[in-house]
Design a protein that fits this description.
Blueprint lengths: L1 H11 L4 H4 L2 H20 L12 E6 L6 H5 L9 E6 L10 H16 L9
Amino acid sequence: SDAELIADLRGYRGTPEEALADAELMALVLPVLRADFLLAGTYAYRPRPALPCPVHVLAGTRDDLRRPALEAWGRETRSGFAIDLFEGDHFFLHSRQAEVLGIVDAALSRRMNGGPAATLQ
């Protein structure tokens, strides 16, 4: 139900309470979020050819994903790979926005200058 999905979103602590309380906004976004959760819950990994571009993983130290799951992304590229961990949960980027943007900027700058965008860390 919508109420259950809103309760789940509230539990993730990543959506402002004002947004969750806005019935008109929720009517617009809940169908999309419901579809996203369904897709994520039914996804089955299938090996594919490695990507020709670097992969740079950014994750929170208190997110549900463990280090081996993050490192598995390294098998998905035949180019550079890096992991950066930030103090926080899945929504760490709310409090670490400047650092995240700095990493993205540095990776793009390296790539534009002919170097790899990511290096193993």
